[in-house]
């Protein structure tokens, strides 16, 4: 199997493609493939040109942190949970997420997710009485990894500089509003401004979520509010 990686030395440099011979090792996660390449004593591309290690992010390797989100054969996913058959797949193409600034190789800057939530101030205020009927859904929504996959596939999210903040804002607003937050009016205003006005309801965010968050339920709750 050939592993083709879209590489970039720094945010200011031009991207380029580099291919590596991985061989045939059965069914592996994409994370395992990247680790195996980087663990070689010396890394060479298919033209036998020396190459530096491939830069990518990871932490838990158990679908709990979202750090390893990349584009795999044209589709966003977590490297730790996406499997490939190295015996049957002729080529594996790896790219960084496209909706965020590239730091280096497969590493992108997703700090805008937290910055958007800070800008909307969805977490301010005091929690009040929680409707027991919402506890199960709150637990599921709180699993959000902030991995950015939902924003990568969202047709309405244009990047860090836009006013549409995407599914993370909708889910965070739901968490606080359904907790009886003291700033309920402000939460609804922020939801209207940074989500409801820009969402075309493609539901790509719901379908791509690696932890299966009930984003549609969050949207429905906030729309009713």
What are the main properties of this structure?
single chain; 225 residues; alpha+beta; 5-stranded mixed beta sheet; two-stranded antiparallel sheet; 8 helices; 9 strands; 16% strand; elongated
Would you give an account of this structure?
The protein has 225 residues and is an alpha+beta fold. The chain is 31% helix and 16% strand. It is built from eight helices and nine strands. The protein has a five-stranded mixed β-sheet with strand order 2-1-7-4-5. Strands 3-6 form a two-stranded antiparallel sheet. The longest helix is centred in the last third of the chain and has 13 residues, at 184-196. It is elongated and about 60 Å long. The chain starts with a strand and ends with a helix. The model has no long low-confidence stretch (mean pLDDT 94).
């Amino acid at each position: 199997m050939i592993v083709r990686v879209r590489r970039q030395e720094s945010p200011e440099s031009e991207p380029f493609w580099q291919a590596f011979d991985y061989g045939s090792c059965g069914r592996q996660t994409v994370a395992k493939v990247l680790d195996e390449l980087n663990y070689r004593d010396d890394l060479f591309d298919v033209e036998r040109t020396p190459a530096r290690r491939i830069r990518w992010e990871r932490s838990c390797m158990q679908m709990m942190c979202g750090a390893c989100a990349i584009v795999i054969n044209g589709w966003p996913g977590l490297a730790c949970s996406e499997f490939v058959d190295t015996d049957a797949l002729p080529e594996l193409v790896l790219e960084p997420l496209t909706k965020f600034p590239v730091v280096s190789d497969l590493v992108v800057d997703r700090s805008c997710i937290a910055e958007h939530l800070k800008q909307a101030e969805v977490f301010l205020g005091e929690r009040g009485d929680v409707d027991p009927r919402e506890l199960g859904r709150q637990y599921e929504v709180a699993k959000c990894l902030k991995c950015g996959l939902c924003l990568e596939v969202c047709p309405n999210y244009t990047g860090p500089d836009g006013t549409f903040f995407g599914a993370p804002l909708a889910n965070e607003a739901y968490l606080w509003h359904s907790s009886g937050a003291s700033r309920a009016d402000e939460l609804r205003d922020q939801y209207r401004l940074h989500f409801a006005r820009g969402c075309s309801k493609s539901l790509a965010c719901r379908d791509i979520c690696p932890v299966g968050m009930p984003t549609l339920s969050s949207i429905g709750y906030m729309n009713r509010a």
